[in-house]
Amino acid sequence: MNIETARLILRPWEEADAAELYTYAKDPEIGPIAGWPPHTSVEQSRQIIRDVFSAPETYAVVSKETGKPIGCVGLLFGENGTRPLSENEAELGYWIGKPHWGRGYIPEASRALIRHGFENLGIERFWCVCDDANAKSKRVMEKCGFAFDHRESGVPCELMGDVRDEYFTVLTKEQWQAQSSPTIEEIKPQSDSELLGELVALWRASVEATHEFLSAEDIDRIEGYVPQAMLSVEHFAVARDAQGTLLGFVGVEGETIEMLFLHPQARGKGIGAQLLAFALHSWGATRVDVNEQNEQARGFYEHEGFEVVDRSETDAMGDPFPILHMRLGGE
Q: What is the value of pTM for the model shown?
């Protein structure tokens, strides 16, 4: 069985993948932190594919762009987990080749495998465990919705012949359903509504988390314009979770996305992509302006098919923050 995402295909490993696997698995920065020694030859990588990666629900993470494996995701069951797992539990594991770090591939692959587990395998609870010093793995867990459960000291790592302090996180089906199924609703903010205050607060939290190039004074000044911008935009929609918590919003004027902001705790969960899709399909949006210094936003829109078509030295208010003008498909 293959699992497909926007940029990836998760498929069973094949012996023909041995050379690609060795390219990444020989790197001492990959295996040891995950609990296994670097591979020493292509033949060893081929043997790992036969003996280890042939286990059920273990997948090569294949780039659609190249058609080649760049990492691995998989599930552990029963006695194979870091700690024994019950019948309706699984442990998620993953790694990605160093040249592909920082591009969001493993969260993307992991979210797809988690969905498969909950929807098709009858899993009710996922565990995800890493060395307590593995900050990168912890970020993946956060992006996939896992919550810290506990730490354990002196956990034996058989393959590395050492003991470790392990960091345990958990994600239940109920938590996943609440996180992954936001409701998107078109609304019209009102100047005297409590919602407008919530929206402005969310805007500020989002900007403080992503716009590092702005000073506190800049944010204070810009915030004064935000309520009127929300009130005057042609189309406006909000995303809420199952409990009604505000997660983000999008506003469109004509064909231009004038605003799309997420609460910091809602980032990395696909909610921004859902808001964008709503704007594209409901209102025909095809354009967006992005601060040049906001590399995360530029990467997000490029991933969703937008291309830079022009650049301005200043923003709409004449401030010295260069703007990238982007269009869907570069049209």
A: 0.60
* CA dihedral of residues 118, 58, 168, 26 (deg, nearest 10): -150
Taking the C-alpha atoms of residue 186 and residue 282, their distance in angstroms, rounded to an integer, is 10
* Dihedral sign from CA coordinates of 305, 311, 315, 320: positive
- φ, ψ of residue 227 to 5 degrees: the values are -55, -45
- Residue recorded with tokens 């995360």: 296
* Alpha helix ranges (H) inside the chain: 18-25, 31-34, 42-51, 105-120, 135-143, 173-180, 194-210, 216-223, 226-232, 271-283, 295-303
Asked if the model's pLDDT at residue 87 lies above 80, the reply is yes
In DSSP terms, which residues pair with 157 in a beta bridge? 162
Overall size of the chain counted in residues: 331
pLDDT at 36 over 70: yes
Rg over alpha carbons for the chain, rounded to the nearest Å, is 22
For residue 306, give both structure tokens. Answer: 């937008």
Task: Choose among 278, 284, 285: nearest CA to 185.
Answer: 278
- Going 33 to 36 to 42 to 45, the CA torsion angle's sign is negative
Of 45-49, 71-75, 135-139, minimum mean pLDDT range: 135-139
Distances (CA, A) of 113 to 1, 193, 269, 297: 12, 41, 14, 25
**Distance between first and last Cα of the chain:** 36
Q: Any idea what DSSP says for residue 187? A: -
